[in-house]
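Thread: Newbie trying to understand structure tokens

Hi all, I'm a second-year student working on a class project, and my supervisor (Dr. K.) asked me to get a predicted structure for one chain before our next meeting. I've only ever worked with sequences, so writing a 3D structure as a token string is new to me. If someone could post the tokens and maybe explain what I'm looking at, I'd be very grateful. Here's the chain:
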Amino acid sequence: MDTDALYEKLKNFQESKGYFFNKDSEKVNELLEALITNKERYGYMVCPCRLASGEQKDDRDIICPCEYREPDVKEFGSCYCSLYVSIEWNKGEISHEYVEERRPLEKMPGF
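---
Reply by user tm_fold:
Sure, no problem. This is what the structure looks like when written as tokens:
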């Protein structure tokens, strides 16, 4: 699968849930490429902005869209890696604040 196909597959499904791709198409393409790479590497599309263990059961919370996306977008208008954003974020109606990591340290490899 290439980035264009992945974009189309995810776009329609996620927009129906109120999540939009970041309007920065270059950033979106880089993140989609990284998701594809992670799918090839691990067998699942783990968040490209986080360190994966390579064990799907341990990485379940960070398989894109991760379980932290909903609270991140609700609080900040953007998920941790800024792939998914609210419509207000894309329109510049809310500030683009740094999204703090919600994943507990004990779930991160090496901790």
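A couple of things are worth pointing out once you decode it. The longest helix spans residues 25-42. The chain has five helices and two strands. Feel free to ask follow-ups in this thread.
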